Amino acid sequence: MSVIYDRVALIGLGLIAGSMSLAMRRRGLAGEVTGYARSAETRDTARRIGLVDRVCDSAAEAVEGADLVVLCVPVGAMEAVAVDIAPHLKTGATLSDVGSTKRAVIDAVGPHVPQGVHFIPAHPLAGTEHSGPESGFAKLFDNRWCLLVPEGGVDDAAMANLRLLWEGMGAHVDQMEPDHHDLVLAVTSHAPHLIAYTMVGVADDLRRVTDSEVIKYSAAGFRDFTRIAASDPTMWRDVFLSNKDATLEILGRFTEELFALQRAIRTGDGDHLFDYFSRTRAIRRGIIEAGQDTDAPDFGRGKQGE
Ligand SMILES: NC(=O)c1ccc[n+]([C@@H]2O[C@H](COP(=O)([O-])OP(=O)(O)OC[C@H]3O[C@@H](n4cnc5c(N)ncnc54)[C@H](O)[C@@H]3O)[C@@H](O)[C@H]2O)c1
Ligand SMILES: O=C(O)C(=O)C[C@]1(C(=O)O)C=C[C@@H](O)C=C1
Predict the structure, then answer these.
(1) Is the N or the C terminus of the chain less surrounded, counting Cβ atoms within 10 Å?
(2) How far is CA 140 from CA 37, 44, 166, 203, in A?
(3) Cβ(74) – ligand 1 distance below 6 Å
(4) pLDDT computed for residue 293 by the predictor
(5) What is the pLDDT averaged over residues 159-174?
(6) Does an H or E element contain 156, and which?
(7) Cβ atoms 65, 7 nearer than 8 A
(8) In this predicted complex, what is the ipTM?
(9) 294 in ligand 1 pocket by Cβ < 6 Å?
(10) Looking at the record's lineage, which domain of life comes first (predicted)?
(11) 75 Cα: distance to centroid of ligand 1 (angstroms)
(12) Burial 231-267 (b: 16+ CB within 10 A, else e)
């Protein structure tokens, strides 16, 4: 593949930025990748492992002359970064992000985007429970979706280039409206994470009662919950605070269904349980038949392993 952007700047040097840099390098998609992270320790690590071509000591320096700037920081930090870099963005550049929620990012960043800069929020639906500059890997986005989520009309050429970049990094690309994105992700990602955090918290409380048996004999299903519940606290705090309405709506529905299942167990209503589990099993089988099973051998584990 050939170079799509002469210069790409990544702000925030963690799992997603690191994976983007490695994925761009794999196919030669960017002439030069610059990077900036707030902590000196992260910048030093990024320099030591050669995560990007040039690590800068300020966000302004990193974005100077960049054709594409991608904000790869927790959602709650997006606005401060946007304010910091706005005066330094090149006219004609594209500004994007990878935040897990989109309405909040658009509202926080949008007002600071200078005239002549194309703002195209994005969200790669790929990640792991790991974070930081050493957690990235080039294959993270292979065969995963990346959603482009612009608000209103956006320059066709800018959109086409960003699409090409994500495709070059291995992803399938689709477009979605911001509010719809947040509702869909509340169902498929945000509420499931909260449920995993809760389940592991409950087990931890029990551990004090059963003296570590819960962990020692944890079955595969529970281990999967612990993997999810090991995800970065800052990132997920920001996700829930920035997608309140949709997450609370889905959790409300979840609670209703949970109560119905609880009642079925208490009253011995086996038919209810059997029918419910048959329905959910059919969903899983439908996903596999549609070729969307994401349990590829190294999915979500990458070089970090489990
Ligand atoms: N981890 C996932 O599974 C995943 C998947 C898709 C999207 N995302 C989204 O991508 C973004 C980054 O997530 P990540 O997993 O790469 O996180 P990460 O914790 O691995 O990396 C975040 C980086 O941002 C830096 N940072 C934090 N605040 C900053 C600030 N104010 N200025 C400059 N740098 C700052 C941190 O030092 C770190 O280098 C988040 O918005 C997250 O919601 C995460
Ligand atoms: O596999 C994981 O560890 C993830 O949680 C990745 C996951 C997801 O829920 O699918 C998490 C948050 C993102 O915004 C996108 C992807």
Answers:
(1) C
(2) 20, 23, 12, 30
(3) yes
(4) 60
(5) 98
(6) helix 156-168
(7) yes
(8) 0.98
(9) no
(10) Bacteria
(11) 8
(12) bbeebbebbbebbeebbeebbeeeeeeeeeeeebeee
Which tokens sit at 114?
């200078």
Please list, residue by residue across 144-170, b when 16 or more beta carbons sit within 10 angstroms of its beta carbon and e when fewer do. bbbbbbbbeebeeebbebbbbbbbbbb
pLDDT of 82-100, one tens digit each? 999 999 999 999 999 999 9
| Among 123, 129, 189, residue to substitute to test ligand 2 (most atoms within 8 Å of Cβ) | 189
Residue boundaries of the structural domains of the chain: 5-176, 180-267
Mean pLDDT over 240-255 rounds to 97
CATH superfamily for domain 180-267 = 6-phosphogluconate dehydrogenase C-terminal like domain (1.10.3660.10)
Q: How confident is the model at residue 287 (pLDDT cuts 50, 70, 90)?
A: confident
Can you name the residues that pair with 71 across neighbouring β-strands?
11, 97
Query: Ligand 1 pocket test: which of 100, 149, 185, 227 has the largest number of ligand atoms within 8 Å of its C-beta?
Result: 100
Residue 298 binned pLDDT confidence (cut-offs 50, 70, 90) = very low
Q: How many helices (H) and strands (E) does the chain have?
A: 13, 9
Q: Would you give the DSSP letter of residue 4?
A: S
Residue with tokens 């349980």: 273
Alpha carbon of 254 to ligand 1 centroid (Å): 28
